[in-house]
Specification:
single chain, 222 residues, alpha/beta, Rossmann fold, 23% strand
């Protein structure tokens, strides 16, 4: 037998560590039926997001990029008692699918889905004087990552965590000459993070059912 590939190992890990989850399965099925792109986080990644929120005791979570609500469900499940998640989605159709999925999960009262460009949503939260967020998950258009990070810094506190998904791009992030705007956006984001004295950060490469990618974890320290 040859060495199993990343997707095979991912499926094994999920079978060993995760219980059957009809709510998340229904969210994926509804998203597929509605024609949404199949780019939601994997079950293991979703569990990681929920565990991170739970470990932090997060009361306030901000998500940039809702899609069909899969990751929002995972994050909202990790909220502390009385906690709230605000999630920003550009596409009205995606937002509507997400609202249905969140309602099915019994989380509609804990999650607010805001529709419109994410940068405008983040600026609106700042204007509203939103209470600082404990955890921010960025998983939207990669070209916007530098701006989302900059705006998120104005919406958090010391000790808050910012997680950005899809930062390895099948390894292309190491290519300084890439013409791919998603890669270029991620590189600008990483360079911005690396030069920001108010944070400490790392990035982890991943392989699994979502292919070869990775995520960045940023902690606000000042």
């Amino acid at each position: 037998m040859g060495t199993p590939d990343g997707a095979t190992v991912d499926r094994y890990l999920a079978s060993a560590l995760l219980e059957d989850d009809p709510v998340l399965e229904a969210a994926i099925a509804a998203s597929d039926e509605a024609g949404l792109p199949p780019i939601a986080v994997s079950p293991l990644q979703g569990r990681l997001l929920g565990l991170l929120a739970r470990a932090m005791g997060a009361r306030r979570v901000l998500e940039v990029g809702t899609l069909g609500g899969y990751s929002a469900i995972c994050l909202a499940r990790g909220l502390a008692q009385g906690g709230r998640l605000v999630t920003a989605e550009l596409e009205p159709h995606h937002a509507e699918v997400a609202r249905v999925n969140l309602a099915r999960a019994g989380l509609a009262d804990r999650v607010e889905v805001r529709v419109g460009p994410a940068n405008e949503t983040l600026r609106a939260l700042a204007r509203e004087g939103a209470e600082p967020f404990d955890l921010v998950f960025i998983d939207a258009d990669k070209s916007g990552y530098p701006e989302y990070f900059e705006l998120a810094l104005g919406l958090v506190r010391v000790g808050s965590v910012i997680v950005a998904d899809n930062v390895v791009r099948d390894g292309e992030v190491a290519d300084a000459d890439s013409a791919d705007e998603a890669v270029r956006g991620v590189r600008r984001f990483l360079e911005r993070v690396g030069g920001e004295p108010r944070v400490e950060a790392t990035a982890i490469q991943t392989v699994g059912v979502k292919g070869y990618d990775g995520f960045a974890v940023v902690v606000v320290v000042a």
